[in-house]
Write a structure and sequence with these properties.
Helices cover 58% and strands 17% of the residues. α5 packs antiparallel against α7. It is an alpha+beta fold and 213 residues long. The radius of gyration is 19 Å and the shape is globular.
Length: 213
């Protein structure tokens, strides 16, 4: 038994590392590959039609900033930082300030959140949910203000993200595939996701995690 336990531990460790590598490869494809592809298309269009260059350059700048943030965040996850109370809150704030540059941001987190730790798969999925939500605001909301609220509820956590943008049309909101990436992350977190949106009145996402560690 003493001989088998270390071997089993190493096998589980290798399996976990392989799974994490595959998941991060998918994340890099989704968050970096798509942005780089968009930059290439916009640059080619601007080259063919110089009169459209100013508009395309603005979008290229935004996509480039997203790539920088994505690479930094994936490296941050890969390094496997030891959880420090409140560090994750500071990282979410910094990410929002970088991604939502040019928009009015109201970021609030209660004292309990600043004293708590989130690590491992819970942190990874929560963070990627968060990035996807902000990404949707940048690409689709066309708003001016974003509010982010983080509050603890016993062992659980509530994350609220709202914008004052165009909202989601009723027919689109009714589709099962709408906000599919966010729903997938919520399922991985075993969390409840509520979506409130009306055309012209913005969108509010409320993610409720039953517990975190």
């Amino acid at each position: 038994l003493l001989l088998l336990l270390p071997i089993r531990y190493q096998l589980l460790k290798k399996r976990f590392a392989k799974t994490l590598r595959m998941e991060l490869a998918g994340d890099m494809h989704d968050y970096i590959g798509s942005s780089l592809g968009g930059i290439q298309v916009l640059a080619e269009t601007a080259e063919r039609k110089p009169e459209s260059a100013p508009v395309h350059l603005k979008t290229i700048r935004m996509l480039s900033a997203e790539c920088v943030v994505s690479i930094r965040d994936l490296v941050w996850i890969l390094r496997g930082h030891q959880p420090v109370p409140g560090e994750w809150v500071a990282h979410l704030r910094e990410t929002a300030e970088t991604m939502l540059e040019g928009l009015a941001l109201d970021f609030q987190a209660d004292d309990s959140a600043h004293c708590s730790c989130i690590a491992g798969a819970t942190w990874r999925n929560l963070f990627l949910f968060y990035r996807e939500a902000l990404h949707n605001i940048i690409r689709h909301a066309d708003g001016h203000q974003v509010g982010i609220r983080i509050a603890t509820a016993g062992p659980g956590l509530v994350l609220e993200i709202k914008d004052d943008g165009r909202g989601i049309p009723a027919e689109k909101a009714a589709r099962a595939t709408t906000l599919g990436a966010l729903k997938q992350r919520a399922n991985l977190l075993k969390a409840d996701l509520a979506v409130e949106s009306l055309p012209g009145q913005g969108t509010r996402l409320i993610l409720r995690l039953p517990g975190h560690a």
